[in-house]
Amino acid sequence: MTRNELRPVIKLRSTAGTGHTYVTRKNRRSDPDRLVLRKYDPIARRHVDFREDR
Question: Does the structural domain 3-53 have CATH classification 2.20.28.120?
Fold first, then answer.
């Protein structure tokens, strides 16, 4: 596998419905499922879950 296939760039979209996104990379071998991280949403002004968007 090449570097781009193993660690793809993914978008994390806010579950608060504000449309705010973060961009990150993830390891497909260690995290094959969709990634969910709790991060700060500046539009909602609070921490919310961000889910991987495909």
Answer: yes
Alpha-carbon span 25 to 21, nearest angstrom: 13
Dihedral-angle region of residue 19 (phi above 0 means left; psi in -120 to 50 means alpha; beta otherwise): left
pLDDT digits (tens, 9 = 90+) for 38-47: 999 999 999 9
* C-alpha dihedral sign at 25, 43, 49, 16: negative
pLDDT, residue 2, reads 66
Matching residue, tokens 């909602």: 44
Where are the chain's structural domains?
3-53
- Taking the model in full, what pTM does it have? 0.85
> Nearest CA to 23 among 14, 13, 10, 34?
10
